[in-house]
């Protein structure tokens, strides 16, 4: 079974079952909300796909010529155009493009072994997941703890420090931050590896099932591999996670401050409940709701950050693949990766909105 | 807000509430501190920084010691490290500054130059004198430079000779001189004889892999950052603002369709879209500006539309409409002024974002053509030498960070002033 099918099964199947359960058990309003939201996702996917098509096919610039380089004879150009279907009318190309997207059939890569692009992507997608998931968890942890702490100690030194932290983090170029971490921990101190996902020697012994090395090494109880995977994971995760955390600190802080001024908080304080319980028990729960919508919007930053992080750390994920294929002028692969990113964005924002509606019963159409 | 108003004296809170509704852009900026304690100095400092960067971007030649593509010294010199070139050693009171100063009329006694026997600097003196001599002849100046070399065995002997006035000038490698310099307070090392640009002071931020001055490239790189940041933000503003106003004011199918498109665009990872656009269009500063401008149209659109929707329901708009004001008049005179403060905030944050995205594109090799001085390109080039030359990847990144920080801070400061609700006291 291909790794991507496994991952779709691991993540997709429970999500689908959960969605069905919510749909059946939920109230009328919730059901209508979920349906409308799914109804809105389809045009969004359509628009994003159209955008990708526009960029790749209509903007000036000839992918075939640049792929063949100066050595390409007119016959070769003509032949390649025909193979890629670029000599057909635009409207037909557009139809084929949409059909390919729905069936996830992206054609073959233009370089190397001319393998199906979906296979190449399914090898790399798990790597991206392995980077993005821990990074998001790290960012959320820092964001929620830091933001709540800053809000509870308003106007104190630590509040100002955390605010400065979030502004500076926002201004940090992620690729530079990654390089600095490499310089310090990888080269000066020599504590951590600075590129790749696993030590190549240890990696040879790892039985790959899902291509998420963390899961693979756990499944096969390969402890040296697990150690190597973990040490390789530290720097990329910290790079991506810290960059994301700035926004979360900021949003959590503002929301907790707002919530702390609500009447029910005053009432809780009046009842003599300890301040800590008021902040972390009562206020945080409500303050988190808007932060969750924010997570949906951060997916864009997360994916863009992943592209840069993967490039710096030679991480063989989707972002690294995209950059590598752009420099190889593999135009079909570039188009497919970007379409894939568009699909991901649409699906994740749908998921986040559904979770949001579950947490906050006021969100209904 | 209710709890805060009770705390302040009634008269005071009343007065600023009234003022706020009538206050214009500039007045708010200067009165905000008095009214509700927003820190205008935050805006002032960041504005000064931004102005400074714009100045640097406009006149990089004034501040940068060298041109950005000029090869000025040995490659991979660390910050402050002396390029180990042959330099002139003279007494501090000597008038001789360059090799050319030693030239004299054809018939006079040639001047003496002390060198160390068999050292590379001795060879350099010969070669360089011949060059200068040829130049003097071609200029018909009547002067010739044919120095007589006086050879010493050790650097110490040479320095002693210069110190005692036995020879007017000596030539050694800078490192040799620096080893003994403490013993000869009267001597000083002048400029290099082989390269006019390589000063004895070294390069403040070092040199890169081909021997260009990192500091000069940093200064010249400001130009690209500021141009990309401002031009792309202005384009997004010019497209996003009118679209947002129209969509918010007229509503209907036009609004719904446009909002759907804008929301989709907003959700899409900006950098990835920019990567796609520049990958198709090819690397050039115009393509980068266009690619980044497209990304930020939705930001303006969403905010302006939201504000328009809000303002549209106000009583004074209804009043204007009832006395027969034209639609264009309502849009321009009543709604548009209300969105200016938000625009100022988004604009400065947008410039910051655009600079970051532009640097990211260049870092990936998709932004600027490699002949332009750009921080992203410098970082990408420096990454290859991360093991040996830390300064190549450190300083361009700091430059990006500081510029982005200035614009972000300006946005933050403006936000505090125009959005006092966020600042419950």
Report what the structure shows.
The complex is a heterodimer of chains A (365) and B (425). Chain A is mainly alpha-helical and 365 residues long. Helices cover 78% and strands 0% of the residues of chain A. Chain A is built from 15 helices and no strands. The radius of gyration of chain A is 24 Å and the shape is globular. The two termini of chain A are 41 Å apart. The relative contact order of chain A is 0.14. The mean pLDDT of chain A is 83. In chain B, the strands form two sheets. Chain B has a five-stranded mixed beta sheet with strand order 5-3-6-1-7. Chain B is elongated and about 100 Å long. Residues 1-14 of chain B have low confidence and may be disordered. With 425 residues, chain B is α/β, with parallel strands linked by helices. Chain B folds into two domains: 44-66 and 208-424, Orthogonal Bundle (MetI-like fold), CATH 1.10.3720.10; 86-192, Periplasmic binding protein-like II (D-Maltodextrin-Binding Protein, domain 2, 3-Layer(aba) Sandwich), CATH 3.40.190.10. In chain B, helix 9 (214-250) runs parallel beside helix 12 (285-312) and helix 15 (375-383) runs antiparallel to helix 16. Chain B has helices at 2-7, 10-22, 25-36, 40-58, 60-63, 120-139, 155-164, 174-180, 214-250, 252-267, 270-281, 285-312, 315-322, 327-363, 375-383, 390-418, and strands at residues 86-91, 104-105, 112-116, 143-144, 148-152, 169-173, 187-192. Classes of the chains: A mainly alpha (365), B alpha/beta (425). At the A-B interface, helix 2, helix 7, helix 8, helix 13 and helix 14 of A face helix 10, helix 11, helix 14, helix 15 and helix 16 of B.
């Amino acid at each position: 079974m291909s790794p991507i099918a496994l991952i779709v099964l691991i993540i997709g199947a429970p999500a689908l079952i959960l969605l069905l359960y919510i749909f059946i058990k939920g109230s009328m309003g919730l059901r209508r909300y979920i349906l409308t939201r799914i109804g809105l996702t389809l045009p969004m996917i359509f628009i994003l796909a159209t955008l990708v098509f526009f960029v790749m096919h209509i903007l000036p610039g000839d992918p075939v010529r640049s792929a063949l380089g100066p050595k390409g004879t007119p016959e070769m150009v003509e032949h390649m155009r025909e193979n890629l279907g670029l000599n057909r009318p635009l409207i037909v190309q557009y139809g084929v493009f949409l059909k390919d997207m729905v069936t996830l059939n992206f054609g073959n890569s233009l370089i190397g072994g001319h393998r199906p692009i979906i296979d190449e992507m399914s090898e790399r997608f798990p790597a991206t997941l392995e980077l993005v998931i821990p990074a998001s968890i790290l960012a959320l942890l820092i964001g929620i703890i830091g933001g709540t702490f800053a809000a509870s100690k308003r106007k104190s030194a630590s509040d100002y420090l955390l605010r400065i932290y979030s502004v500076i983090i926002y201004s940090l170029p992620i690729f530079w931050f990654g390089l600095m971490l490499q310089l310090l921990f990888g080269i000066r101190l020599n504590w951590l590896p600075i590129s790749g996902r696993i030590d190549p020697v240890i990696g040879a012994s790892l039985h790959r099932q899902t291509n998420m090395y963390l899961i693979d090494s756990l499944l096969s109880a390969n402890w040296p591999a697990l150690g190597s995977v973990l040490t390789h994971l530290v720097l990329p995760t910290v790079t991506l996670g810290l960059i994301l955390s700035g926004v979360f600190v900021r949003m959590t802080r503002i929301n907790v401050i707002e919530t702390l001024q609500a009447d029910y908080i005053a009432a809780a304080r009046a009842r003599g409940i300890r301040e800590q319980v008021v902040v972390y028990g009562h206020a945080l729960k409500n303050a988190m709701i808007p932060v969750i919508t924010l997570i949906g919007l951060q997916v864009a930053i997360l994916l863009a950050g992943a592209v840069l992080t993967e490039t710096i750390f030679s991480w063989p994920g989707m972002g690294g693949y995209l950059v590598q294929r752009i420099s190889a002028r593999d135009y079909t692969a570039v188009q497919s990766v970007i379409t894939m990113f568009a699909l991901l964005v649409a699906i994740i924002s749908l998921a986040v909105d559904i979770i949001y509606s579950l947490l906050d019963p006021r969100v209904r159409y | 807000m209710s709890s805060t108003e009770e705390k302040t004296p009634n008269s005071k809170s009343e007065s600023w509430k009234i003022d706020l509704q009538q206050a214009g852009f500039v007045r708010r900026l200067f009165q905000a501190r008095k009214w509700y304690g927003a820190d205008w100095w935050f805006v002032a400092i960041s504005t000064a920084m931004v102005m400074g960067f714009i100045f640097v971007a406009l006149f990089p030649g004034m501040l940068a010691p060298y041109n950005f593509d000029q090869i000025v010294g040995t490659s991979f010199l660390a910050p402050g490290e002396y390029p180990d070139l042959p330099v002139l050693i003279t007494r501090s009171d000597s008038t001789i500054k360059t090799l050319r100063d030693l030239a004299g009329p054809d018939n006079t006694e040639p001047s003496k130059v002390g060198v160390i026997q068999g050292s590379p600097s001795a060879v350099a003196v010969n070669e360089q004198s011949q060059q200068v001599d040829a130049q003097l002849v071609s200029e018909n100046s009547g002067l010739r430079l044919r120095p007589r070399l006086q050879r010493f065995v050790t650097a110490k002997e040479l320095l002693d000779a210069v110190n005692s006035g036995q020879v007017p000038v000596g030539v050694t490698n800078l490192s040799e001189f620096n080893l003994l310099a403490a013993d000869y307070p009267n001597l000083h090392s002048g400029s290099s004889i082989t390269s006019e640009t390589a000063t004895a002071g070294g390069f403040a931020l070092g040199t890169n892999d081909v021997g260009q001055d990192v500091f000069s490239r940093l200064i010249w790189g400001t130009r690209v950052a500021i141009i990309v940041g401002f031009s792309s933000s202005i384009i997004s503003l010019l497209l996003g603002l009118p679209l947002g106003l129209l969509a918010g004011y007229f509503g209907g199918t036009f609004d719904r369709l446009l909002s759907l498109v804008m929301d989709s665009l907003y959700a899409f990872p900006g950098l990835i879209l920019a990567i796609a656009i520049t990958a198709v269009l090819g690397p050039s500063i115009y393509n980068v500006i266009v690619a980044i401008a497209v990304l930020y149209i939705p930001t303006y659109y969403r905010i302006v539309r939201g504000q328009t929707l809000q303002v549209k329901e106000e009583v004074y708009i209804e009043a204007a409409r009832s006395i027969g004001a034209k639609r264009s008049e309502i849009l321009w005179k009543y709604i548009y002024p209300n969105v200016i403060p938000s625009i100022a905030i988004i604009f400065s944050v947008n410039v910051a974002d655009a600079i970051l995205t532009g640097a990211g594109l260049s870092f990936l090799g998709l932004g600027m053509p490699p002949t332009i001085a750009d921080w992203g390109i410098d970082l990408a080039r420096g990454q290859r030498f991360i093991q040996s030359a830390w300064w190549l990847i450190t300083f361009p990144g700091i430059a990006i960070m500081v510029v982005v920080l200035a614009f972000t801070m300006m946005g933050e400061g403006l936000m505090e002033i125009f959005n006092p609700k966020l600042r419950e006291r």
